[in-house]
Amino acid sequence: MGPVPNVTRADVAQAVRNPLAFIAERWTPQQRTVRRAAMISLVMTVGIVVTGGAVRLTGSGLGCPTWPKCTDDSLTATSEMGIHGYIEFGNRMLAYVLSAAVGWAIIAARSQKPMRRSLTRLGWIQFWLVMSNAVLGGIVVLVGLNPWTVAAHFLLSSALIAVAVTMWQRTREGDAEPRPLVGRAVTQLVWFLIVTSGLLIAVGTVVTGSGPHAGDSSEVPRMGFDWETVSKVHAVLAWIVVTLTFALWFVLKAVDAPKGPLHRTRDLFLILLAQGGIGYVQYFTDLPEVLVGLHMLGSCLVWICVMRVLLSLRERPLTAVEVPAQADDSRLSAV
User: Fold this and answer.
1) Smallest Cα–Cα separation from 258: which of 317, 191, 183, 185?
2) Per-residue confidence (pLDDT) for residue 332, from 0 to 100
């Protein structure tokens, strides 16, 4: 144990005015600490999407019928509400765990030496997306699981995943100007893949909003689309994404691209095949809840892989000045 630093009245005032700056002056995290913080934030983001799907698939969407309290008289779930109340309330509590994970990522990024404003900014974008989605989640409950608000809730989570992936990747890079690793035509193909994948996810929310899993055992409104027709449109888009991914891999091989883009494209292709297999099985088996939940997890993994393909097309090497001094993470050191 090292000596405990003296804390003066000025230190307390500074900590109150700007706690992040106060911590940053007294702690320099290792690179791996920042990377782990960003990774934990990403994992928790995927986790809350999957548990949110569990809320829907167990019919617990209105287990807590109001928001921000669970009932008009209780902040938490009560025994009278049964298992659905505990499931919904548990998912709400995970939002606080996600907020803590994002906060830890912000603190770790802000405390790096030298400070990386771009990295810290990505952390704050995540924070505000989490807060926005929490409010939107409350609106979903207050409007009785309106399917359009549920779809918006999922799409905002997809935006959060995109930012979390970007921050995780940026922890492994420097702040120099990005250097492209492939030609402009390949980059345009990847952007077309990004747009098509985003459309695939959006149509997927329409499939869910038109299908049988309304999220609660009560009468919940559905989107006014034929479920089977929308599912077929979703399948066509999935095949387009698979074809684009295979075409991208072939082009990258043809132009002798670096291993990074090739490996990320291969990963995406394999995840897409697994996701497509789950999708077809659940379609022909009348949408069992377990497979629907796996398909939601697969959707998150597909989006992560798509973002990683995009981010692999350039490099930002670390410069000597950007490599922070390695510090002991086990304690806070006095300045």
Assistant:
1) 183
2) 37
How far is residue 141's CA from residue 47's CA, in Å, rounded to a whole number?
A: 20
Phi–psi pair at 84, nearest 5 degrees: -65, -35
Among the listed residues 232, 161, 240, 150, the one whose alpha carbon sits nearest the alpha carbon of residue 197: 240
Cα separation, 284 vs 171, in Å, equals 42
**pTM for the complete prediction?**
0.88
Q: Looking at the predicted structure, is the pLDDT value of residue 79 above 70?
A: yes
Q: 198-247: per-residue pLDDT in tens?
A: 999 999 999 988 888 777 666 788 888 888 899 999 999 999 999 999 99
More confident residue, 172 or 321: 172
Q: Are 272 and 241 in contact (CB under 8 A)?
A: yes
Q: Residues 6 or more apart from 263 whose CB is under 8 A from it?
A: 312
Buried b (16+ CB within 10 A) or exposed e, 169-185: bbbebbbeeeeebbeee
Give the CA distances from residue 303 to residues 164, 199, 206, in Å, rounded to whole numbers and listed in that order. 11, 11, 17
Instruction: Give dist(CA 151, CA 61) in Å, integer.
Output: 14
- Specify the pLDDT at position 15: 59
* Distance in angstroms (rounded) separating the CA atoms of residues 142 and 146: 9
Contact status, residue 314 vs residue 180, Cβ threshold 8 Å: yes
Separation between Cα atoms, residue 238 and residue 333, nearest integer Å: 52
Of 196, 216, 245, the C-alpha closest to 147 is 216
d(CA 151, CA 228): 18
Tell me the pLDDT tens digit for each residue of 30-60: 989 999 999 999 999 999 999 998 888 888 8
